[in-house]
Amino acid sequence: MIPIRFRRSVKLCLLSTLTACSVRVMPAGVPTLPDSAIIRGHIEYLASDRLEGRGTGTAGNDSAAAYIARRFRELQLIAPFPGYFQRFEARGAQDAHLGRTTPRATQNVVGLLRGRDPILRDQYIVVGAHFDHLGRAPESSLDPGARDAIRNGADDNASGTAAVLELARLLASHPLRRSVLFVTFSGEELGLLGSQFFVDNPPVALDRVVAMLNFDMVGRLKDDKLFVYGTATATELVAILDSANAAGQPQFKVTGGGDGFGSSDHSSFYAKGLPVLHFFTDLHEDYHRATDDPDKVNAAGAARVVGLALRTIREIGNRDSRLTFVRASAPRQVSGTRQGSDTYLGSIPDMSASSEGLRLTGVRPDSPADKGGLKAGDVIVEFGGKAVKDLFSYSDALYSHKPGDTVKIAVLREGQRMDLTVTLGRRGQ
């Protein structure tokens, strides 16, 4: 059941009758600020035990998709695909590694809000988040000892999905000049499969998309610290984000920057030549564990993230000109856990770590990293004779090698340097 407080709140959000190009107007007196109670209601449903962790291709994942589609329908968003579902078959490298040959039938969920400007409405902003998680599968978890326990993924990524749903509610009340595509992706945990399928099979021409904003783990805000990656993907983004942050009280301590490649769905869009922003409130000890439950989510903090994003989206959606895209000199992969190179290590980088080198939040069980002795908390400082200063230099060093190579990896473990030898694997084997 949807919590009663959520059902009452959502009644306030029903809009006037929709035609394909009509402009929606929220009834007078309806709040247009982010509502933490509504956000919490979304998270409590999506991360409830009844959905069993929303693993791609499971009944719980389908239930989550149906829930999102109902919210889009209540907001009278246009359905670019039948029932809002962009269906596809997910074939992940991990499934291949485990000998699973049957693809997972799943779906992205997509809703369209038409813009109010007769010319600019044919340009689009994508607002997205993945709604899948690990389900009961221990293979990708950081607590394999919990076996088939439900991994609810309240922060990863019910929180990001809730942020997208709340942004849809707020933007539907006052449409932008440009149109907005709200997209929740499946198959992210299997290797960005849903977002890759979307950009390969978009409902609108990609050259009409002006930007993509991604929300992945935005439910654990602490000490006003917010990471926003991708600010270097368009020349205007730093100033837009700074202005949006200055308009909120209290302001965030924003860090991040960088190009648009990374271990979440924004990377699929940046690879297609689109400006991106990725909002993230930091990793934590419950990441990819059965303890990532709704009671640990900071819903008020998530509402503040939504507020910042809303101001950012409004500026991008209402400005006269498009953003000026900036391309990185070369694509950079962020870890051996995502698609790209065949070379596989199995490391899980701490994207928020600021120490010299690359800190690991974990390693995949039975991966080359695991077999070579790498552990959570290790800081990689040298890889194959190349110094590792950050995520990017690590990626460059990793992908300069091929599967089967034996490399020396130097790590700092509890302040002591250790030299390890690892034989790199091939993704999917």
The CATH class of the largest domain turns out to be: Alpha Beta
Helicity level, as a percent range?
Answer: 25-40%
Tell me the domain tally.
2
Structural class: alpha+beta
Strand order of the largest sheet: 1-2-4-3-5-8-6-7
Give the N-terminus to C-terminus distance in angstroms. 41 Å
Instruction: List unreliable stretches of 5+ residues.
Output: 1-31, 329-340
CATH topology call of the largest domain: Aminopeptidase
Care to describe what's here?
- The protein is of the alpha+beta class and 429 residues long.
- It has two domains: 4-318, Zn peptidases (Aminopeptidase), CATH 3.40.630; 343-426, Pdz3 Domain.
- The chain has eleven helices and 16 strands.
- The protein has an eight-stranded mixed sheet, with helices on both faces.
- α5 (154-173) links the parallel β3 and β4.
- α2 crosses α5 (154-173), α2 (36-46) packs across α9 and α7 packs across α9 (299-318).
- The longest helix has 20 residues, at 154-173.
- It is globular.
- Mean pLDDT is 87; it is low at 1-31 and 329-340.
